[in-house]
Amino acid sequence: MPSENLFADFQTALFSSPVQTSIRLRHGNRYAAQARKQRVRLLFLRGNAALSACVNSGVGNATEQG
To answer: For residue range 11-40, what is the model confidence (pLDDT) as tens digits?
Structure first.
């Protein structure tokens, strides 16, 4: 199921961020905020790509069956 994988991707990207914590410990909150913005942006783009792939495959299956 691609939806389960997508949800797992969102979960891991949101809740496991050792890089962000190390950046915050070393450089302070400003760099952590920048890293968080960048990670959210990448997650958003990857989620859009996965969703469009799911939609395209669903449409293809529907047209093949119909």
So the answer is: 566 555 565 556 556 656 676 677 778 878
pTM: 0.30
By C-alpha distance, which of 10, 7, 8, 34 is closest to 20? 34
Give CA separation, 51 vs 1, 11, 14, 17, 56, in Å: 12, 16, 18, 23, 8
Number of C-beta neighbours around residue 23 at 10 A: 19
Phi, psi angles (nearest 5°) of residue 16 = -120, 105
Are residues 6 and 54 in contact, defined by beta-carbon separation less than 8 angstroms? yes
Cα–Cα distance measured from residue 35 to residue 29, given in angstroms and rounded to the nearest whole number: 10
Cα gap 16→53, rounded to integer Å: 25
